[in-house]
Amino acid sequence: MSIFxxxxxxxFTLISLTPNLTALSEGKAAAAAAFExxxxxxxxxxxxxxxxxKTLEGNISFKNINFYYPSRPEHKILDNFSCDIGIG
Length: 88
Description:
Elements (H helix, E strand, L loop, with lengths): L1 H37 L19 E12 L2 E16 L1
Antiparallel strand pairs: 1-2
């Protein structure tokens, strides 16, 4: 009789594992896709003469910027924000 109950409990335990195994396999597939993107070689040669400049020069200016998030238009995030940023 105790062997019967042990088998029944074992079967219920295996049945309760299936959602976890499904989530584990979905996570493995997502990780494989993420690592495939990370392992890709870039088409840009950083040592080429036409590569991106390593130094930046210039100015960035914001004048009287007002901003609201579309989902919360009653809360103003930026109110007449002005800023000058010099680079280089």
